[in-house]
């Protein structure tokens, strides 16, 4: 079954299709765009992308932070130019979130903007990265420091791509599905994966429609991410994004409890949801809390001081200027476990 989720952004509106085989809508999407040529940038085998129906250049790509840099964007744009791609043509990305990010940025910049269609192949890319128009590359100074908002013309989340996804990669995406529980989609546990994906995308589409440029409600999507990002950096990315966000979600629950925003059952719910998905809920044993606090002060949401998206009587919201001593105290009370056990904990995941 295919679910169609509209992202309503006036003239930048588009549909996200979720379901088995939806990649086969690609030629129809390309035809509707009126493109004469397509460049397909794919981190997956050529057979994973259907025929576009127009003259096509296939460029191989690699998923991963290593290639998510400005020189890749320059190389892609050079290939687009040599192929003769025009502004009325289309770029197609196929791969995980790093691929949709870098290809999305190349499409945003080439001829000041050419249509892009994403075929996300990882769970993380399907539920988050490919939807909402954020594109970016890294600089030596940090992640995602150069980017643009460039909405795709369509996103085809083919759930058949996920059947060969390694277990840990699947869990990486489940971290984002778990955080949906606290920002408006509390009923996802136990649903079949395609329904969880569709519900997560529906939630995100609604938030992005309210706040495309991330000046308010879009912060909600970063539930659990303030500590999550700090943990990714502190562990040199030994924790995957979704695992780190899961631990950050448990921490966000405890912090909301410590600030009197939610009661103990609300705090406990955070751990229960994260553990339901088989995700880790404890801090890595040898990560220094001071390093985490320092890193969290650099979070983009924090203008000054420490800022977190936290549950509360009005639902989840951004809370700025959280006292450092409360953060330190909650970190000190978090359970700890060896990194290899935390990663191992993810083996028993349920959806
Ligand atoms: N990944 C968070 C956002 O798209 O805003």
Please give a structural write-up:
This protein is of the alpha/beta class and 351 residues long. It has 2 domains: 3-165, 3-Layer(aba) Sandwich (Rossmann fold), CATH 3.40.50; 223-349, Dehydroquinate synthase-like, alpha domain (Up-down Bundle). 40% of the residues lie in helices and 18% in strands. The strands form 4 sheets. It has a 7-stranded mixed sheet, sandwiched between helices. A two-stranded antiparallel ribbon has the order 7-8. Strand 5, helix 3 (97-109) and strand 6 form a beta-alpha-beta unit. Helix 5 runs parallel beside helix 8, helix 7 packs across helix 10 and helix 8 (241-258) packs across helix 11 (324-333). The chain is globular, with a radius of gyration of 20 Å. The two termini are 19 Å apart. It binds glycine. Glycine (GLY) binds next to loops. Glycine is lined by residues 128, 132, 134, 214, 218, 221.
- Total helix count? 12
- N→C terminal distance: 19 Å
* Principal-axis shape: globular
| Rg for CA atoms | 20 Å
Helix and strand string, N-terminal first?
EEHEEHEHEHEEEHHHHHEHEEHEH
Show unreliable segments.
none
CATH level 1 class label of the largest domain: Alpha Beta
Let me know the number of strands: 13
CATH topology of the largest domain: Rossmann fold
**Global mean pLDDT:** 95
Specify the CATH architecture of the largest domain: 3-Layer(aba) Sandwich
| Number of separate domains | 2
Helix content: 40-55%
Bound molecules: glycine
Summarize the main sheet.
7 strands, mixed
β-strand percent reads 15-25%
Strand arrangement, major sheet? 1-2-9-6-5-3-4
Question: Helices and strands: which structural class?
Answer: alpha/beta
């Amino acid at each position: 079954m295919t679910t169609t989720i509209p992202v309503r952004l006036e003239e930048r509106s588009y549909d996200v299709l979720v379901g088995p085989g939806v990649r086969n809508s690609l030629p129809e999407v390309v035809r509707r765009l009126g493109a004469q040529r397509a460049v397909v940038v794919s981190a997956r085998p050529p057979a994973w992308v259907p025929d576009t129906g127009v003259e096509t250049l296939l460029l191989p790509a690699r998923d991963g932070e290593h290639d998510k840099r400005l020189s890749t964007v320059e190389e892609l744009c050079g290939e687009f130019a040599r192929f003769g791609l025009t502004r009325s043509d289309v770029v197609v990305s196929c791969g995980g979130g790093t691929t949709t990010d870098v290809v999305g940025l190349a499409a945003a910049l080439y001829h000041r903007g050419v249509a892009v269609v994403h075929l996300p192949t990882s769970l993380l890319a399907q539920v988050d990265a490919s939807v909402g128009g954020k594109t970016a590359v890294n600089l030596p100074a940090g992640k995602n420091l150069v980017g643009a908002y460039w909405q795709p013309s369509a996103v085809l989340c083919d759930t058949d791509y996920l059947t060969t996804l390694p277990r840990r990669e699947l869990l990486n995406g489940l971290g984002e599905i778990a955080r949906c529980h606290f920002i408006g989609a509390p009923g996802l546990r136990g649903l079949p994966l395609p329904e969880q994906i569709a519900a997560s995308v529906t939630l995100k589409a609604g938030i992005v429609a309210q706040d495309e440029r991330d000046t308010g409600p879009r912060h909600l999507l970063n539930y659990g991410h303030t500590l999550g990002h700090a943990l990714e950096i502190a562990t040199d990315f030994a924790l995957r994004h979704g695992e780190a966000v899961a631990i950050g979600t448990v921490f966000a629950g405890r912090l909301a409890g410590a600030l009197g925003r939610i009661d103990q059952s609300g705090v406990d719910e955070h751990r229960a949801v994260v553990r339901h998905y088989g995700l880790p809920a404890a801090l890595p044993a040898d990560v220094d809390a001071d390093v985490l606090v320092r890193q969290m002060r650099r979070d983009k949401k924090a203008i000054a001081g420490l800022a977190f998206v936290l549950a509360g009587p009005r639902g989840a919201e951004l809370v700025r200027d959280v006292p450092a001593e409360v953060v330190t105290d909650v970190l000190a009370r978090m359970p700890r476990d060896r990194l290899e056990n935390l990663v191992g904990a993810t083996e028993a995941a349920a959806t």
